[in-house]
Amino acid sequence: MKKRIPRVYIDKHFKINETIILDSSNTHYIIKVLRMNSQDILEIFNNTNYIFLSKIISIRKNIATILILDKEKKNIESPLFIHLGLVISKNKKMNFAIQKSVELGVNIITPIFSRYSNVSKSKKNILKKNIYWKNVIISACQQCKRNIIPQINNAEEIDIWCEQSNKKEIKIVLDPKSTKNINQIYKNVNCVRLLVGSEGGFSLLEMEKIIQYKFIPIKLGPRILRTETAAIAAITALQIKFGDL
What structural domains does the chain harbor? Predict the structure, then answer.
């Protein structure tokens, strides 16, 4: 069986035969977590559709240096572009939903404040969360072999996010009271703005405004799903119908 090559994200452009000194975070990851040694091979990705085959050429005093050996174009992005508006939930649930959404091919994630989101709106708190979510996304890309890093936006109020318009996209909101499912959406969809609420759902006023912004209410079967499950199920269903699953 072919040995899996570890992957590391570095926000930098590379040239063949270039040597790179890894930062402390990536050095710790390859030495302490992956237990790699000098002469071991790893794969670098840098938010392009290229992967860079590399070799560790030295590890001294917890400073790792790598050599870029070769590059290969590798595009595994879905033809379906998904912008996920995800109402902010408790830490573990939000982290899980973001991680799995990335694995399933989401392109942009915007954390959303709604009436039932029940989180602090302080700039310091949200900035801290946003940095953490960015790392969750990078880690998910390392695992699932995506080379393009999905974008995580600053948190927005639900009204502001919903009123944004892109003529190419179809707008969908998950609503367990709807009579329509994803299979009833017309064909040839290649861009989706998907809104997923918290476990408390949306208030009546919020849902009225969401509909006014031309979102199509969609239900995911007869069962009520947790917010993180709903996001995963909706993205999976969209990728099966319009994407690459």
Answer: 7-73 (2.40.240.20), 81-242 (3.40.1280.10)
